[in-house]
């Protein structure tokens, strides 16, 4: 892996946003996703076991590239590096987080929802962003509007992406991949239906490859 934010997005076209509440399910879930064809996994820091889940997946599922989501501070970023995370994704951006990441060891994909935030990111050397919360921030028409003044920027829209709209997002020139929790339905996880998850991933990727 030659890791840059752009490369991580290019491995998509779908990054699952995973909230792991039960540690013992993390490895099985990661294996199910990898079997389906998804290698880049975002574990959000929104649960107590997130960092440990990253550690375990890193050790036990070497085919996966596991990183952290909901990284909102330089301290979060440090914790992710210590856990062995390969990248970090943030819902937003702050000067201190972007500075810490550009001096740090792993790539950061910061979040933006406006032209001004995007310009702040560009100023600090970033050209690849999460667009968050995608649906609530204007969705596809907002991304089309941003593509005018910022044609070289690439996005991973996340927040409100579903099986019904992800192909429309992927059809946009500036969208390299989409992120979301929809790819692992809660019931499948509760039922430990790993084969079901693998099948869903295969179907999702197959539909994306024909567009
Ligand atoms: C995130 O953390 O990126 C979002 O909460 C995921 O949004 P979704 O649940 O609407 O996919």
From TrEMBL:
Pathways involved: Carbohydrate acid metabolism; 2-dehydro-3-deoxy-D-gluconate degradation; D-glyceraldehyde 3-phosphate and pyruvate from 2-dehydro-3-deoxy-D-gluconate: step 2/2
Alphabetically ordered keywords of this record: Carbohydrate metabolism, Lyase, Schiff base
CDD domains: KDPG_aldolase
Pfam families per UniProt: Aldolase
Keyword Protein transport: no
Listed EC numbers: 4.1.2.14
Endpoints of the signal sequence: none
GO molecular function, one term: 2-dehydro-3-deoxy-phosphogluconate aldolase activity
Catalytic activity: 2-dehydro-3-deoxy-6-phospho-D-gluconate = D-glyceraldehyde 3-phosphate + pyruvate
Complexes and interactors: Homotrimer.
Family the entry assigns: Belongs to the KHG/KDPG aldolase family.
Name under which the protein is recorded: 2-dehydro-3-deoxy-phosphogluconate aldolase
UniProt organism field: Desulfolithobacter dissulfuricans
């Amino acid at each position: 892996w030659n890791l840059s934010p752009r490369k991580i997005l290019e491995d998509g076209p779908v990054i699952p946003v995973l909230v792991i509440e039960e540690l013992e399910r993390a490895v099985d879930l990661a294996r199910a996703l990898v079997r389906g064809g998804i290698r880049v996994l975002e574990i959000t820091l929104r649960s107590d076991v997130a960092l440990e889940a990253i550690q375990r997946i890193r050790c036990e599922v070497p085919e996966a590239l596991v990183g952290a989501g909901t990284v909102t501070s330089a301290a979060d970023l440090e914790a992710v590096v210590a856990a062995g995370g390969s990248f970090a994704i943030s819902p937003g951006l702050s000067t201190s987080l972007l500075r810490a990441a550009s001096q740090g060891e792993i790539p950061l994909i910061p979040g933006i929802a406006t032209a001004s935030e995007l310009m702040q990111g560009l100023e600090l050397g970033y050209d690849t962003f999460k667009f968050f919360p995608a649906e609530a921030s204007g969705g596809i028409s907002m991304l089309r509007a941003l593509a005018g003044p910022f044609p070289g920027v690439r996005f991973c829209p996340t927040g409100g992406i579903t099986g019904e709209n992800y192909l429309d997002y992927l059809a946009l020139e500036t969208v390299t991949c989409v992120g979301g929790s929809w790819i692992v339905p809660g019931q499948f996880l509760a039922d430990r239906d790993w084969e079901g998850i693998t099948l869903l991933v295969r179907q999702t990727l197959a539909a994306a490859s024909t567009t």
